Structure formats: structure tokens, C-alpha cells
Amino acid sequence: MKQTGGRMKDSLDDAATGPGRAVPGTRERVLDAALICFAERGYAATSMREIARQVGIQAPSLYNHFGGKRDILAALLERLGPARMTRALAELPHPVSVQTLHEALLTLLFQLWRDADENRLMRLFCAEALHDPAIGAMLEQQVFVHEKARLAGAIKGLLGPAPQHEALAETYAALCIAVGFGKRFQLLLGEDDPARIDAICDEARVLFAAVARLLPGDSR
Description:
The chain is 74% helix and 0% strand.
């Protein structure tokens, strides 16, 4: 949905100084402004000068924090995108059961799917990836390499070092990524209507339950 310049500025101000929130540093304000500008104008049509103007700094000062728009986009992916899932998986308390890990995965995933900023960023990435192979490669690496490796590693650590467990963990992680990305893409194609998102999450939960049956019964 398009925002007017005034509404865009209001949204940025709210993000920076809303009740109960500390005023973020310049780097975070740049990311907030860039996400709104990219969503409104598109990545290619947004200039570094426009981002600086929205933050309230001079354009040269922006380069003290980021080398260019590509660096800003990468930072947004690290802050909001699939990297959030990777960090959350790494921060889970250990040891945990495989079932606990699986349920935590779904909880984290569905929280991201209900995050408006997250959805805005992922729509931006998916749209820009069609035109810029470097952006597509950035997203592919984060989802299909880093996130999958983190999930497979967590499962391997719980199942033990047996060779069959290593193959099982890799298969489980690959299927989770495939199901998650497929249902996420379905979500991004439509409006962020809560009832619609709930329905997609319910469908995804059924599919993830089928994937979880691959895991040893005594682990679940």
C-alpha cells in the first residue's frame, strides 16, 4: 500500500519515538527510513539522498554508516529477514527435545509471518530479486544455505552423531525450508489480513507436522 510523504514521515517518527521505545541510533533510523522508502518507491527509484532526507541528515553523513543501498538492503535482511529465525534458533536454551525445537520453530516462524515490517521487507526482496541477481543470491544464501544449515545443525545435535541422523537432519531441514518458504510466498502474494494469515499458518502447521514425522518417535 502506498503512503503519502507526510504519512511516511509520521510512520518514521512513530517508529523512532513511540511510547515506551528508546530513540534509536542513526544507523537504526536509516534502516527504518530505507524500509519505508524502498516499499513506497521501490529499491531502484530510491536514492541515498532521499533516505538521508527522511532521516534528517546530510547525504555524505549516510556513508559513514553504509557504503550504499546494497549495504542497507543487506542490513535490513539481517535485522528483519530470515536471519531473525537463524538468530532465534541459535538462542534457544539447550538441551531441548526435538519436539520442543520443532514447536519453537513454528512459533518463531508464525511470529515473523504476522510482522508487518517483515512482510514489507520480504515483498521488497522478492520483487527486487527478479530484476537483480545479486539481491536474489543474497536472499537465497540467507534462506537456503544459512538458515537451513542452522536448523540441520540443531537437529543433528539433538539426534546424535550417527550417520543416519546426519542425513535425517539434512532432509528435515530442507523440507522445513521448502514448506516454510512456499507458504510464506503464498502469504506475500495477498493482503496482510489476520484471518488469511491465520488460515495459512494453520495449513503450514499441518504440513510441518507431516515433516516432523520423519524424526525418531522417541524424540517427539
